[in-house]
Amino acid sequence: SSGINAEWPLRPGEQQTISITKAGVKAVLNARTSILAAANPIGGRYDRSKSLQQNIQLSAPIMSRFDLFFVLVDECNEVTDYAIARRIVDLHTRQQESVEREYTMEEIRRYIAFAKKFKPRITKESQEFMVEEYKKLRQRDANAMSKASWRITVRQLESLIRLSEAMAKMVCEDEVLVGHVKEAFRLLSKSIIRVETPDINLEDEPEVPEQTDDAMDGEEGEQLRITFEDYRKISNMLIQRMRDFEDQEKNKDSEEGALKKKELVDWYISQVEEEIEGEQEMIARMNVTEKVIERLVKVDNVLLEIGGGEKGESPYLVVHPNYIVD
Hints:
15% of the residues are buried. It contains 13 helices and nine strands. It is elongated, with a radius of gyration of 27 Å. The protein is mainly alpha-helical. Helix 7 packs parallel to helix 9 and helix 8 packs across helix 9.
């Protein structure tokens, strides 16, 4: 969607008002309602290696206006596909007879109208529990291995309060109990996590010469893989190091304050040397780091190579100017 259309929920979500200009008359109307929105990922398929924000290309201010996000990934499953197809066919053939309802539409309307009349108060115990759960979210977000799709701010605490009150209303309670807060926290936690991502294959397109069947049988499956969390951790460390080095502008011998690829690999190894046991593991770590850098250059287009390539000289690396570190 266009930038104008994508920004429209900001004011209704923030101030619960909306401005309308018609025939020279400007009016500000109340917009105290819930917003239920749906979005398709860029390209029509959800990319598990990217965050929710990157998949739907919505700005952080807009995403912070919503309390819950749920990602529905269309995966092939024989049982699920059969059940969905069976239900759709039944709806077209028998229409209303196929829909089994526990309650009538009139009963649901009456229940919602009755539940809305409750104005639950948050008990002291629930308040303390909310604070503790919010602190957990913040600590989890500060962890480099966090799976959050966006930063945890006070808006998530406000979402926790609204969801807790909604849980109390749903069961027609006058008070928000700890149990309501626990369920609200569970929903919020499930909503803000990143969709599980597959392992990163650091040799997606290896240049392998033609081999005999015997040679292929011996080498099949020898591909270098790391988890997405490890890939993200390593890449963020490398990129942050390059950004810090560029800001310092101390090394006048480098081209525009850039680091060489070999220098970057050596720096990373020095940061994790306490975790390395033996020469073989160090060689393996260096190989992984080089492969990560290669992927950042050729696949993710996060890093740019400058110079190098002559007589085995290590190229200079710079971070793409439009890239923002997560």
